[in-house]
Amino acid sequence: MTLVSEYSRYYRFLRFIITFLRFDFLPINCFLLRHIRMSFYPALAAFHFVATSHMLYYVMLEGDMVTFSFGTIWFSGSLQAFIKTITAIYYKEQFLIFFAGIEEIVKTHFDTVVDVIVKKILKETLTLTKICHFSITVIFNSTVFLLVMNGMNSPKGQPLGYYLPVFSWWGNFSFQLYGAWLILYTVLAGDFIFIALALFFRGELLIIAEIILCFDDSQFVKDNIHLLRMIYKMHLRILKKLGTFQNVYYFLTFLQIVSSFFLICLTTFMIRFHDLQAWAYAVLLCGLMQTFFLCLIGDILFEKASLISTALYLTKWYEMELEDQGRLLIMIAMAQKPYGIKAAGLVDVSFFTFIEIIKLSVSYCAILFTVA
Fold first, then answer.
1. Which candidate, 130, 134, 137, 23, places its Cα nearest to that of 85?
2. For residues 229 and 324, what is the distance between their CA atoms, to the nearest angstrom?
């Protein structure tokens, strides 16, 4: 299978995710019905969020910390599912523009030297994306399975732990079982899109840096000076994409960090001071993994964006024409501005943030133990 067909198949799958979340496969033209159709998954996620919030209030009054911890997991998951479906629905056109831009780069034929660099990095990016997607799929599915089994073994015998008096026992069971997998796959879908886009942008930045490093050779500068204009345009495009990407995930990344903090803190508390089963360890691993991927990707984007400035400085710029030197200066100035992911404009998403979340979670866990 060629690289182009692999990318086309993979991004066709990501388009299907957005289509499925919006129910676009249903041919409805009426304005009101179309919005009702698109609100189906967000409404279900919001319902589970409200139901788990109600359950958390009563178990907190009873002082049942184990059930409270279990409910907090679904509370966090349903909130993430709601925000991620809203993001996919609202920013559909922007996501499709991103996907089209990616496929355009994959299908473009460059000069021989550049084409080798581009194809190598594109292949590496796709492999890395698949590994990340496979890892979170296995971990998330295993975690939800253990959580559902734990809920079924609870006194109420319900997957999500709450009970709706308007339904029968089997009605509650079926509805909550569907809700558990709904939360799982909407959260996974949101993470799939985020990881795929972020890693491809990382690949684009790496392609630019690798091509620029070739200009350290005097003969290459003489033979391929025309590539400088192409690099300049590519750099402008990727910086614009990163700005749009930051706007799309402006609040979602902040929500991810906050919910992961509470998840890690409460689960660590329950594991340390209560006799819990495998589901608690699976949830802790899931929360750590999700936060780690988010922070690692933010760190990688920042690093690769900064790498371009260094690569430009190391070129044989003094052997170029004044016009080309001017372009290099503009690119260096743009590359020196930090580009990455800033959650809600407040927190830089980086590996340092991941360490701080772990430290803060352990600190609050100790406070919880003292209060308890």
1. 23
2. 8
A 10 A CB-CB count for 170 gives 8
pLDDT tens sequence across 254-280: 888 888 888 888 787 777 766 666 777
CB count in 10 Å sphere of residue 38: 21
Do 160 and 179 form a contact (C-beta atoms < 8 A)? yes
β partners of residue 343: 347
Token pair of 265 as six digits: 């803190």
Per the CB < 8 A criterion, the answer to whether 343 and 295 are in contact is no
Record the tokens describing residue 287, joined without a space: 């929360």
Q: How close are the terminal C-alpha atoms of the chain, in Å?
A: 58
Instruction: Return the C-alpha torsion angle 342, 261, 130, 245, nearest 10.
Output: -20
How far is it, in rounded angstroms, from Cα 147 to Cα 240?
A: 41
Distance from the Cα of residue 299 to its chain's centroid: 13
137-182 pLDDT per residue, tens: 888 888 888 877 777 777 666 667 777 777 787 887 888 888 888 8
Exposed, middle or buried, 154 (CB in 10 Å: 0-12/13-18/19+)?
A: middle
Torsion of CA 279, 284, 290, 296, to 10 degrees: -150
Burial 219-241 (b: 16+ CB within 10 A, else e): ebbeebeebbeebbebbeebbeb
The whole-angstrom separation of Cα 157 and Cα 148 is 10
CA distance 343 to 249: 8
At residue 372, the pLDDT reads 59
Q: Locate 191 and state its tokens.
A: 């993470």
> How far, in Å, CA of 307 to CA of 117, rounded?
16
**What pTM was computed for the model?**
0.86
What CA–CA distance (Å, rounded) separates 240 from 234? 10
The pLDDT assigned to 277 comes to: 67
Residues 6 or more apart from 238 whose CB is under 8 A from it? 201, 204, 205, 208
**CA distance readout (Å), 20 to 5, 13, 136, 252:** 22, 10, 20, 20
Most distant CA atoms of the chain, gap in Å: 80
- Segment 103-110 mean pLDDT: 82
